[in-house]
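Schema walk-through. Below, the input block comes first and the output block second. Nothing else is stored per chain. Lengths vary across the set, and this one has 113 residues.
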Amino acid sequence: VQLVESGGGLVQAGGSLRLSCAASGLPIGSAVMGWFRQAPGKQRELVASITVAGSTNYTDSAKGRFTISRDNAKNTLYLQMSNLKPEDTAVYYCRWGNTVGYWGQGTQVTVSS
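--- output ---
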């Protein structure tokens, strides 16, 4: 089982990025999946999640700016982020599963003011 994130980088405030999480060894549509982030000195927090049925949920700070989606054919999870703010700076991780699951290695997102 492997989850590989990509798409992070350095962007100016107000810009956009699309993160990808390519899965191998398991079908992404078979469990809840989520995007988490961890800023320096802070706990890892859930940003957005998508259920098997396709229902989505967002943290308040992400609502209206981030969109989580998945492409089952490509076995890939996405996070489209727009109107990025400096406080969005963090390492972003994808996760498959809930109580028992798998993490990706993370991708750095840095938003400059």
